[in-house]
């Protein structure tokens, strides 16, 4: 078993998380300024996974009153299919519940089957399809979960 640890994202993680995001999302990736902002955002919760002091995954959400919104989830390619996203999503769902959220939502590219499978495993349902949601014209599914 790999010794992977999970903790809150801090300002010292910003460069590593930005690099991971670029590798995972390409042109859709966030700038380091967005991650820097998110480390100060009191309506957000971000967690990272570490292996041998290297950031290998990141996931986060925003929460507003009774709703939580997953903003990102990414696992470094060489660490996928080991349950890391499952652990982080379970942690975010538990945090959202503890903040009082009763509903969680997210959007995902319609051809992103690994992610859609992951979300469906947790009971997320496809609520609607947003046409031309992404800059390259791909549609998004809006998915939701009653907590
Ligand atoms: N093909 C099909 N289903 C997949 C999959 C793949 N390549 N990878 C994950 N899944 C689904 C499966 O249902 C899996 O459960 P199983 O292993 O029991 O079959 C479930 O997700 C959980 O897998 P897990 O190992 O926890 O996921 P992961 O740590 O590999 O991370 C992603 C999954 C989607 C976060 C990862 O592939 C990733 O970082 N992708 C690029 C970034 C991205 O698209 N993020 C989501 C944006 S909405």
Layout: helices, strands, pairs:
Layout: E1 4-8, H1 14-25, H2 32-40, E2 44-51, E3 54-64, E4 67-75, H3 84-98, E5 103-109, H4 113-121, E6 125-130, E7 140-146
Parallel strand pairs: 4-5
Antiparallel strand pairs: 1-2, 2-3, 3-4, 5-7, 6-7
The protein binds coenzyme A (COA).
Written overview of the protein:
With 147 residues, this protein is an alpha+beta fold. The chain has one domain (4-146): 3-Layer(aba) Sandwich (Aminopeptidase), CATH 3.40.630. It has four helices and seven strands. The protein has helices at residues 14-25, 32-40, 84-98, 113-121, and strands at 4-8, 44-51, 54-64, 67-75, 103-109, 125-130, 140-146. A seven-stranded mixed β-sheet has the order 1-2-3-4-5-7-6, sandwiched between helices. Strand 4, helix 3 and strand 5 (103-109) form a beta-alpha-beta unit. Helix 1 crosses helix 2 (32-40). The longest helix is centred in the middle third of the chain and has 15 residues, at 84-98. The protein starts with a strand and ends with a strand. The model has no long low-confidence stretch (mean pLDDT 97). Bound molecules: coenzyme A (COA).
């Amino acid at each position: 078993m790999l010794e992977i640890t999970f903790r809150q994202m801090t300002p010292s993680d910003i460069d590593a998380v930005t690099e991971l995001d670029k590798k995972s999302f390409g042109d859709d990736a966030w700038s380091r300024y967005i991650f820097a902002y998110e480390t100060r955002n009191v309506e957000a919760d971000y967690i990272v996974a570490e292996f041998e002091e290297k950031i290998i995954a990141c996931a986060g959400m925003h929460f507003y009153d009774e709703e939580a919104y997953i903003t990102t989830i990414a696992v470094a390619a060489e660490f996928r299919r080991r349950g890391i996203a499952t652990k982080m999503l379970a942690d975010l769902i538990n945090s959202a519940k503890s903040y009082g959220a009763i509903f969680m939502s997210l959007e995902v590219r319609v051809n992103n089957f690994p992610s859609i499978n992951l979300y469906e495993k947790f009971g997320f349902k496809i609520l609607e399809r947003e046409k031309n949601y992404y800059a390259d014209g791909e549609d998004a599914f809006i998915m939701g979960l009653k907590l």
